[in-house]
Specification:
The protein has helices at residues 17-27, 33-49, 67-71, 80-98, 102-109, 112-124, 132-160, 208-235, 239-261, 266-275, 280-299, 304-338, 351-382, and strands spanning 174-176, 188-191, 197-200, 345-346, 349-350. With 383 residues, it is mainly alpha-helical. The structure holds zinc ion (ZN).
Length: 383
């Protein structure tokens, strides 16, 4: 091995990592061909001389310049090819080193400048790095989406079965207890398992099997939404899309898991009654799935500072969105009962719900475009 041979005078063989790092960074410049050869030898020997101090110094990459590239999955950013090339370069460095051949090592090592640039670009494109208020805005908007995904699960079954539902922001339009609806013939009367009388805004009454399917469809849609969000975060290459996926998954799993932890849940309550099983048989598997998804999402954020920042932003965005959804849902129920023509259904959704969702999707599109513009202008500046 090169490092065990006698040390040339020009070399700075030092076991101190700081000294080694200085030599290594000096090598990242463009010295004359002669200097390069000498320095490459030094570098190889220094690398051998560096004691094992954990990850940092166990390979010739102790200068740390390209360490991030190593852990970065190839192709995880729009600069995937560049990152991959960089990681491959590093691989070659190590391979060449073991098989000796110092010229090869030299050739590869000069690529470190390229690696450094790639690292800077990868840092800019790191989806975990995002402005706090930008994240709050995203969380606010995605609360609407998470709620709509859940309701759309229920709605799809009612609508395809031809039950003519009228949907609000966070539930089917319904009235419980007194007073009864103003026009009871437009509603379907039902008795809850606890004996309370209610009215659902449906064209016709579903069968027991239909009830079971449509009740299960809501939590299942929420779960699919969370899985979809996590998949975007994992496999999409665009950092803004990754952020959207992760925030959606975190919101969906946070709302649903606290729902199951508190043991509340109208869907699960009715579902358990119709199936004739204890509620916890539904609550436990769903609750566990959402808790695992939440932990996975939080885990990917890397360090606790980033995790607290993201969770803080998500909570801050969720409070106003949650309050709005609650108040707006009450308003829709009351206005549908009054027969207000502005609240008439469009494809089974009360009109304001459609309008608000269209606005939310437009706002998300603007958010995404703006985030992309910011990334690309930072890269131009960095490049
Ligand atoms: Zn539901």
């Amino acid at each position: 091995m090169a490092g065990t041979e006698s040390t040339p005078r020009q070399c700075f063989v030092s076991p101190a990592p700081t000294r080694y790092a200085r030599d290594a960074s000096r090598l990242a410049g463009s010295p004359s061909p002669r200097a390069r050869t000498v320095n490459a030898k030094c570098w190889v020997q220094s690398a051998q001389a560096v004691p094992r101090l954990g990850e940092e110094s166990k390979s010739p990459r102790a200068d740390g310049q390209c360490k991030v590239m190593d852990s970065e999955r190839p192709g995880s950013a729009p600069f995937g090819r560049g990152v991959q090339a960089c990681a491959a370069t590093e691989g070659s460095v190590e391979a060449s080193l073991r098989a000796d051949g110092q010229c090869k090592v030299l050739a590869r090592f000069l690529d470190h400048r390229f690696c450094r640039e790639q690292k800077r670009k990868a840092q800019i494109m790191d989806y975990r790095k995002v402005g706090f208020w930008q994240l709050v805005m995203l969380a606010l908007l995605l609360n609407f989406v998470a709620q709509t995904i859940h309701e759309a699960g229920h709605w799809t079954i009612y609508e395809t079965l031809g039950r003519e539902p009228v949907w609000g922001f966070s539930s089917l339009v319904q009235i419980w207890g007194n007073p009864p609806p103003l026009h009871p013939n437009e509603w379907i009367a039902m008795i809850a398992p606890d004996g309370e009388k209610g009215w659902l805004r449906l064209g016709s009454s579903p069968s027991k099997t239909e009830w079971i399917i449509m009740l299960a469809a809501g939590p299942l849609a929420s779960l699919l939404g969370v899985v979809f969000g996590l998949s975007l975060m994992r496999w999409n290459r665009n950092p803004a899309t990754k952020q959207m996926g992760l925030v959606l998954a975190l919101i969906g799993s946070l709302i649903m898991s606290q729902y199951y932890l508190r043991g509340s849940g109208g869907d699960e309550y009715f579902l358990a009654v119709y199936l004739g099983i204890p509620k916890y048989i539904i609550d436990i598997p769903f609750g566990l799935a959402f808790i695992i998804a939440f932990i996975l999402g939080v885990w990917t954020l890397g360090d606790w500072r980033t995790r607290f920042k993201w969770l803080g932003a998500i909570l801050l965005g969720s409070v106003p969105a949650g309050l709005f959804l609650m108040k707006a849902n009450d308003l829709v129920q009351a206005q549908v009962n009054q027969g207000n023509p502005l609240f008439q259904p469009l494809l089974g959704w009360s009109l304001p719900v459609v309008v608000v969702n269209v606005i939310v999707f437009l706002a998300l599109w603007i958010w995404w475009k703006r985030a992309n513009k910011m990334y690309y202008s930072s890269i131009k500046t960095a490049g």
